[in-house]
Amino acid sequence: MGPDDPMAPKASPGMDSPGMNGLGRPMNGMYLGPDDEEFELRFLDAMILHHQGAVEIAEESLQKSQREEIRQLSQEIIETQRDDIAQMQAWRSQWYANAPEAPQMYDPQRSQTVEMNDGMISMLKMEMDLGEADENYDQRYVNAMIAHHEGALDMARQGLENSDRPDIEAFANDLIETQMAEVQQMLALQDGGQ
Questions:
Q1: What is the C-alpha separation between 156 and 161, in angstroms, rounded?
Q2: Given phi > 0 = left and psi -120 to 50 = alpha, else beta, which region is 50?
């Protein structure tokens, strides 16, 4: 499913507001700023961290989930997102060889690109404690991963809107297709219960 698919969530003018998605709700990702010369740097840095957070959550579920279908989905998420991280790190090295090593973000109050602090990195990765491997763990995991994917989808749509690099456009379209399918799969797992 591409962003032009009628079933795909649509961006709206509210998406341009810092920290808001197209529905006027806070994003689980982040506002990446305007389409300036550093947009792709901020996009890559944010998406790399966000993917790292998803990998960490999925790795934990391999140890704690009692459901084979959830462990299988988690393994697929880990493999896909690790590949994505490697690709984005390669692009960052190629396109921004002289950029600071620390991840960069847009500061809307100063209208400029700044270094991310530890709190922003943690927020972007959506670090959380999903608790013990009890009877409700799988539900907490699925809810957390759906929210995590929503953040990546928000940022991918910003990438489509603000980047003119064909690599970013193709990456964002692929991410939207993959993660929308995974969200549908997770919603089905929710409906299936324990």
A1: 9
A2: alpha
Amino acid identity of 169?
A: E
Q: How far apart are CA 23 and CA 52, in angstroms?
A: 26
Amino acid 193: pLDDT: 54
Tokens of 72: 């299988």
Report yes or no on whether pTM surpasses 0.90.
no
Q: Tokens representing 148?
A: 């995590």
Of 23, 54, 173, 20, the residue nearest 124 (C-alpha): 54
Strand 104-107 with 112-115, pairing? antiparallel
Q: Which residues of the chain have pLDDT under 70?
A: 1-29, 192-194
- Mutual angle of helices 137-162 and 39-64, in 10-degree steps: 160
